[in-house]
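re the bet — no i am not wrong, look at it urself. input seq straight from the record:
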Amino acid sequence: MDNIFADTAYGKAALAKLAPVAENFMLFECGWLGQKVEEMTVMECKGAQFREATKGKNKGKLSIIVKGTERTAYVTQEEIAKYRSADDET
C-alpha cells in the first residue's frame, strides 16, 4: 500500500496533528466534511498502523491495519494552507 496522502498539503497537516506516529502509520482516507462547497472548511483524515501481509497477493506489503491503531485528524483549510507551496495543487 502506498502512502498516497503523505506528500499532499492536507496529509502533511494531518500527520503533524497526529504526531508522533509510528514508521508504518499511513493515512488511508481523507475527505471534506459538509454537504455544500461553502461548508467544506474542515477535512477529516483517517490513518492507522499497517503490518505486512503474510499470505496472498499482497504478501510482504504493508496492507493489513493493526487493530486498535486507527486515529483521526480534523484539519482546516487554514492549517492545510501552511503546508501548501505556490505550485502545489493538492
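see?? The beta strands are 25-32, 42-52, 62-65, 71-76. told u. also The mean pLDDT is 91. so pay up
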